[in-house]
């Protein structure tokens, strides 16, 4: 019996025209094969004749609503990347033997679009997302792609869906580029076929309600990532194993997991965010610390931006809201949990916060550890924010929303 071809419905005025994807097995080697790459000039657009109502910003949660359209491309070893299509959002038919189902050959990115103060939809440092997505694709031996061509298509999709961009504080249009392997068969080999899609979701704050501090449970029994593993890449397979421990932490009254690693149980990520610690120094300066990119830590775009902002802080390039003469020592190094406990006990622990695309920046107010129910308490200012977290978050959002001119805020233009 011949295998069932993967079919992707293309909706036009309510009709559905299946597009079959060939399943012939070919060994794909990007070093020896020259196949068509993503070509934005071949984009076709089929607009949805029935547009959904845009919900009020106060009703938005994170990642539960989709916009009217999506971007879709497919790859085969015979013809390379297909002509890109922007079409109505809709379900997709996947072969049960597809490698994405059987072997988790799935990658994705998290980006956001904001409506700038100038009335233009904008993306935040999208080149970093595209570069990371390309690294993730290579990690899973998925087909290579032209990241600038994909970015051009993402901008076009955002422009088409710009009515969905919420302008309320803390809201944005979340962008989820995804690539998954569609080669059929049980052999553990690279996927010679793939689908690349981009969907959009108008979203409110990642943590519902007023922005507030969250609590963490320091997990030393389960390891999220390890050197030489996949923690430094944005792969779907990294996330599923974290769900059980996070559920268990919630039962103990904590919002998220503080992942630990190594014989010294040093800090890893905060849930799905990068971790930052601020330490008081004897001379009045502050040390801003984050774990190094050792292969266990995802190189977050927000992490990159926080490092850039804090390293540049000075009288000549201050972060608004911080004293211009405040000296910040910004370092990337391991912080064992025992060291964090000592800093807390000696009064040197000033702030702990997590950063990421979805949440931007969230302060931490307590960290549980050990089987005795011990906790590290972190004092915060107004709404639980310390001065570094508050100033950095406000500066990031001002740049993202183009209230502060910066090359990181990239307009989506025709």
From TrEMBL:
<comment type="similarity">
    <text>Belongs to the class-IV pyridoxal-phosphate-dependent aminotransferase family.</text>
</comment>
<dbReference type="GO" id="GO:0052655">
    <property type="term" value="F:L-valine-2-oxoglutarate transaminase activity"/>
</dbReference>
<dbReference type="InterPro" id="IPR036038">
    <property type="entry name" value="Aminotransferase-like"/>
</dbReference>
<dbReference type="InterPro" id="IPR033939">
    <property type="entry name" value="BCAT_family"/>
</dbReference>
<dbReference type="InterPro" id="IPR018300">
    <property type="entry name" value="Aminotrans_IV_CS"/>
</dbReference>
<dbReference type="InterPro" id="IPR001544">
    <property type="entry name" value="Aminotrans_IV"/>
</dbReference>
<feature type="modified residue" description="N6-(pyridoxal phosphate)lysine">
    <location>
        <position position="234"/>
    </location>
</feature>
<dbReference type="GO" id="GO:0009098">
    <property type="term" value="P:L-leucine biosynthetic process"/>
</dbReference>
<keyword id="KW-0032">Aminotransferase</keyword>
<dbReference type="InterPro" id="IPR043132">
    <property type="entry name" value="BCAT-like_C"/>
</dbReference>
<dbReference type="Pfam" id="PF01063">
    <property type="entry name" value="Aminotran_4"/>
</dbReference>
<dbReference type="GO" id="GO:0052654">
    <property type="term" value="F:L-leucine-2-oxoglutarate transaminase activity"/>
</dbReference>
<keyword id="KW-0663">Pyridoxal phosphate</keyword>
<keyword id="KW-0808">Transferase</keyword>
<protein>
    <recommendedName>
        <fullName>Branched-chain-amino-acid aminotransferase</fullName>
        <ecNumber>2.6.1.42</ecNumber>
    </recommendedName>
</protein>
<dbReference type="InterPro" id="IPR043131">
    <property type="entry name" value="BCAT-like_N"/>
</dbReference>
<dbReference type="GO" id="GO:0052656">
    <property type="term" value="F:L-isoleucine-2-oxoglutarate transaminase activity"/>
</dbReference>
<keyword id="KW-0100">Branched-chain amino acid biosynthesis</keyword>
<dbReference type="InterPro" id="IPR005786">
    <property type="entry name" value="B_amino_transII"/>
</dbReference>
<dbReference type="GO" id="GO:0005739">
    <property type="term" value="C:mitochondrion"/>
</dbReference>
<keyword id="KW-0028">Amino-acid biosynthesis</keyword>
<dbReference type="GO" id="GO:0009099">
    <property type="term" value="P:L-valine biosynthetic process"/>
</dbReference>
């Amino acid at each position: 019996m011949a295998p069932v071809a993967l079919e992707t419905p293309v909706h036009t005025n309510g009709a559905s025209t299946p597009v079959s994807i060939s399943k012939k097995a070919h060994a794909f080697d990007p070093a020896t094969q020259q196949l068509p790459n993503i070509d934005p000039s071949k984009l076709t657009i089929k607009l949805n004749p029935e547009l959904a109502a845009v919900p009020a910003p106060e009703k938005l949660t994170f990642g539960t609503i989709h916009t009217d359209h999506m971007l879709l491309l497919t790859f085969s070893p015979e013809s390379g990347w297909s002509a890109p299509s922007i079409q109505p959002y809709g379900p997709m038919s996947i072969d049960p033997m597809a490698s994405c189902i059987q072997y988790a050959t799935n990658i994705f990115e998290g980006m956001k679009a904001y409506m700038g103060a100038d009335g233009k939809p904008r993306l935040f440092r999208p080149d970093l997302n595209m570069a990371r997505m390309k690294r993730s694709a290579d990690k899973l031996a998925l087909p290579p792609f032209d990241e600038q061509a994909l970015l051009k298509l993402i901008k076009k999709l955002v422009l088409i869906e710009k009515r969905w961009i919420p302008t309320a504080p803390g809201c944005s249009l979340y962008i989820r580029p995804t690539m998954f392997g569609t080669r059929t068969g049980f052999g553990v080999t690279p996927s010679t076929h793939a689908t690349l899609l981009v969907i959009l979701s108008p979203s409110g704050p990642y943590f519902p309600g007023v922005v507030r501090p969250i609590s963490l449970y320091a997990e030393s029994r389960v390891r999220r990532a390890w050197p030489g593993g996949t923690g430094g890449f944005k792969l779907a397979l990294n996330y599923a194993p974290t769900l059980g421990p996070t559920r268990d932490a919630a039962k103990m009254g904590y919002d998220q997991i503080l992942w630990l690693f190594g014989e010294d149980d040093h800090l890893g990520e905060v849930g799905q965010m990068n971790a930052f610690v601020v330490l008081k120094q004897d001379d009045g300066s502050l040390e801003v610390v984050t774990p190094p990119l050792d292969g266990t830590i995802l190189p977050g775009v927000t992490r990159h931006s926080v490092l850039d902002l804090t390293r540049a802080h000075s009288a000549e390039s201050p972060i608004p809201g911080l004293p211009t003469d405040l000296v910040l020592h910004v370092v990337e190094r391991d912080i064992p949990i025992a060291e964090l406990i000592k800093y807390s006990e000696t009064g040197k622990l000033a702030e702990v916060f997590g950063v990421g695309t979805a949440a931007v920046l969230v302060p931490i107010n307590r960290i549980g550890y050990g089987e005795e129910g011990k906790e590290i308490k972190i004092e915060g200012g107004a709404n639980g924010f310390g001065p570094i977290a508050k100033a950095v978050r406000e500066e990031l959002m001002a740049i993202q929303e183009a209230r502060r001119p910066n090359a990181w805020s990239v307009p989506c233009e025709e």
